[in-house]
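Supplementary notes for students who missed Thursday's class. We covered one full example, reproduced here. Read the sequence, then the structure, then the short commentary at the end.
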Amino acid sequence: MSLTNRQKQLLLGSFLFEQIPPQLVEGFLDELHAESFAAGAEIYTASAFARSVGFVTKGAAVVHNASGVLLNTLDAGNCFGVAALFSPEEDYIATVSAKTAAQVVFITDRQLTGLFAEFPQTAVNYIAFLSCRIRFLNRKIERFTAPSALEALRFYLLENEQEGTVVVSQGYAQLARQLNIGRASLYRSLDVLEKRGIIRRAEKTVAVRIPAALKHPF
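Structure (token representation):
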């Protein structure tokens, strides 16, 4: 289906079109189409994927690794497939599925190559986005190689804190698996931070009371 004005605005607000006057890419946007997915439907799998960047323009999608661990939740305006688009690999590294009924706009490698040629700033934007992803993944590696459960938890809280709050939406058992630590170790670490007054825990919500304390190793 052709893009709605709202979908076009979401794309224009993405990293790809930063510093690009909207009127210059109207023709490009008119060539794009949105695909609909029912809740639970697979969008990308290891063996079934396209050489495209997918922008979620309605609903939400979730990303799981091969072990089934939740890696990310993609709301409207978020995208996937950026790092893998120009890779020679024959499989995709994760499974992307619709969390709710969702619509996704795909931009193929050929379309992007043409866009880069016509508007070089979009290529710079793409590279900048990948650079930010590399920094993000480096922080992930630091978390997984953390010397203790307490340090792994510190990295997690530091990465996910928003306006003083971290929501553990999947529960603490899932968080322990995500951090590659035992549940008992996770709860002990939470207790330590709570006793120090750094956090306050209420069910699946963690209030970060002293954000500055998370910026340095314990």
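Commentary. The mean pLDDT is 91. The first strand starts at residue 34 and ends at 37. If anything here is unclear, bring it to office hours.
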